[in-house]
Amino acid sequence: VQLVESGGGLVQAGGSLRLSCAASGFTFDDYAIGWFRQAPGKEREGVSCISSSHSGTYYADSVKGRFTFSSDNAKNTVYLQMNSLKPEDTAVYYCAALSIGGGFYYCSGYDLDFDYWGQGTQVTVSS
Question: Which one, of 77, 78, 53, lies nearest residue 68 by Cα?
């Protein structure tokens, strides 16, 4: 299983970025996929998550209405569209995958459930 993030960069406040996470070694069937971020000096936090076992998308309150999680199963890639970016969105963003194994997983932003992690991509929002 491999996850590779891309799309980070430097953007002014109010701008947009789209992060991509290309997955290999598995398909999105029977997996939960999450986006997480970690700012300097802060704990890693869940940003958004989808699970194959239920509909709906989890978003952290801090990003609701600004970020959108999407997936392209044909490309085995997920995306995080980030609009109206704020300086407090500055962080390293990671995608992660969890094998559900035929069970049920409800996304809540909890990171320690996830088995596989990408290397991260830096997002910096200037004021």
Answer: 78
